[in-house]
Amino acid sequence: MAHIKLNNEQLPGIVGLLNYRPETARPLLDLAETLLRGPSTLTSGEREIIAASVSYWNQCHFCHTSHAAAAAAHLQSGINLIDDIKAGLPNTPVSDKLRVLLHIAHQVQRNGKNVTADDIAAAREEGATDAEIHDTVLIAAAFCMFNRYVDGLGTWAPEPNEAYLEMGERMAHVGYGKY
Amino acid sequence: MAHIKLNNEQLPGIVGLLNYRPETARPLLDLAETLLRGPSTLTSGEREIIAASVSYWNQCHFCHTSHAAAAAAHLQSGINLIDDIKAGLPNTPVSDKLRVLLHIAHQVQRNGKNVTADDIAAAREEGATDAEIHDTVLIAAAFCMFNRYVDGLGTWAPEPNEAYLEMGERMAHVGYGKY
């Protein structure tokens, strides 16, 4: 049961929280919409993989599985992507640029100060632009917030990957502005 | 020097980042304004102390010092509050409720899952409401984002506490909507 009264079984994970406090839900959803579905030279699939990876590193089951399902919906890759993200994407063809950006995201997840000049140089070598580096850092940072919000209030979430497929389709194709 | 081109010496800490990407600046500032200055039964001074404490635990000098200066401006407590927050507020009269909420914020800073039912029960014993617990968790989570954003992009920030006093006054009394 969540730490505060949320009607969380009907509204799992962050959904009950967004419903509980609409004043903070608005900027949180606007941020997610801009970062994950707004104009960018990174595809939405790539950005959802970054979001899902950070959530997995923070052990947030709801955020990892829902955003991995959104990535699968964008990439039409099937449900196996959800577990492949946990393993570091051994079975998913992704660009070398995304792999170095995922390394930067992992550094940010631990602490912002962990990002080194060498990490940035490696990203530039793979063609990453300032805007892509900026957005990678902010996506990673934002999911360090969303993950703590969801878990810090003890919200409930369904266990099996299959329970997230419809949610992932909605996140990918309807977006974050329509809650 | 910051990891991306920001004109950061003129626009220290997060300011250069907000200026660099206005599309994400808007929801980030709206979130800060609502959480730190919007209607709440926690005072803005108390909420800025939570924000500054989390930032100190994350070792983010810019966010800690600027939000501690904002707390000092709200509480008219003088510059010593900035260092007193680092030490756990031994010389600042704060309520027992704020002390247990700061403990919850510290748990969230490490990982959302660290918040226990006992932590929540201790907060309720000091009179904390659902809304106060919610906002404490979200403020702590949000500063885990802001801190990683500011440090993950390697932004520059002035060192001495004195350099933040005017900024703190502006954050407290003008707010976060006017950048």
Automatic annotation (TrEMBL), chains A, B:
<dbReference type="InterPro" id="IPR010195">
    <property type="entry name" value="Uncharacterised_peroxidase-rel"/>
</dbReference>
<keyword id="KW-0560">Oxidoreductase</keyword>
<protein>
    <submittedName>
        <fullName>Putative peroxidase-related enzyme</fullName>
    </submittedName>
</protein>
<keyword id="KW-0575">Peroxidase</keyword>
<dbReference type="InterPro" id="IPR003779">
    <property type="entry name" value="CMD-like"/>
</dbReference>
<dbReference type="GO" id="GO:0051920">
    <property type="term" value="F:peroxiredoxin activity"/>
</dbReference>
<dbReference type="Pfam" id="PF02627">
    <property type="entry name" value="CMD"/>
</dbReference>
<feature type="domain" description="Carboxymuconolactone decarboxylase-like">
    <location>
        <begin position="22"/>
        <end position="72"/>
    </location>
</feature>
<dbReference type="InterPro" id="IPR029032">
    <property type="entry name" value="AhpD-like"/>
</dbReference>
